[in-house]
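Allow me, if you will, to draw on your knowledge of protein folds for a short while. I am sending you one protein, given as its amino acid sequence and as whole-number tokens for its backbone shapes. Kindly check, if you would, that the fold set down in the tokens agrees with what the sequence suggests. The record follows directly beneath this note:
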Amino acid sequence: MSHAVKRSAAAVARLLLKAIPGRGWRRYAIGGLVVALGASGAVAAVAAVPAQAAHGQPAQASKDDSCRAPASPTLAGFTQGIVPIPGDSLHFVIGGSGPVLVLLHGWPMTWWEWNTVMPSLAKTHTVLAFDLPGLGNSEVPSDGGFTVADAATRIHEAVAALGFGDVSLLAHDLGVGIAYAYARLYPQQVGRLMVLDSELNGFGLEANFGFSFHFDLNMAPPPTPENIINNRLAEVTYLNYLYSFAAKAGAVTQQDKNIWYGDYRCPNIREAGYDYYRAFSDDATWDQNNSTPKLTIPVAAMGGEDSFGSAVADSLKNVDTDVHTIVAPGSGHYIPEEDPGFVIECANLFFSSNPNQTAPAGFEACLPT
């Protein structure tokens, strides 16, 4: 049996195993899809799908590669647009004034995961949030390419097309590796980097693949995940499982879920998400090959207390000399949703240009010096 077939079979087998209760996102060590409705609520899941799905007839999403996510939600004080880049285009949301702060979301979310922190950050920065290439309202890349270096290059092209140069970066989950690649590729244009709850491939993330079946499923060669998550009910069930990685009940709201159900309803968008995971092996090689000399920019590495914790900083210390270890108390994987106040306070300190600022108790590590 080939390695690819073995991996596909393993991914399917893991779907049948029962989740193991615990704390944080790691509570689902080799969990199964079947727990998603139980963990997140069968009523919420059924209410979010079309009537025919609620009556036992799952609604098949369009297989047309031109399927698009619904129009992006609005956020008061911010404007949105589509910026063309060579061969593609990216969706962005922008507001505020001052130094540019680029926000990169995780999977399976979109720019909307920052909606609770963006207004406060915009008081002192030009906040520029993107839908990652292929996700949300951004175009699926026409030439493929889903490595962190590919995505970082496209984000940089979009930043430049909007007329900006020097930036700082705030990233979560999947966005963490992309933000690091951006800083590595364009070190003279990145002032500071804050990363939330993910390690880098090649420097720790791979040790976590056994904690949740979604890693193996998403990395499985096509069409395994495409054929398993192949209708609206399966999509909602899978997403509910992933959103249950929040340690604080209700932090990922029903509004958030409904938005992301729509954003990931298209098979081509879901496939783009899988393709980011399928690139993890290449990302690990790229990260390791581009880890020296170490970067010297200030890095705030934040992990949820009930998720990655201090491991985020341990990972980033392999590639940068100025890493600050920060743990978000009581948070699981979704720190921006679970404790936006903590993220805002820490980010305002870390990205501030005031050399004489002082930090409240518990935020000392957020100071950039």
Summary: The chain is about 35% helix and 15% strand.
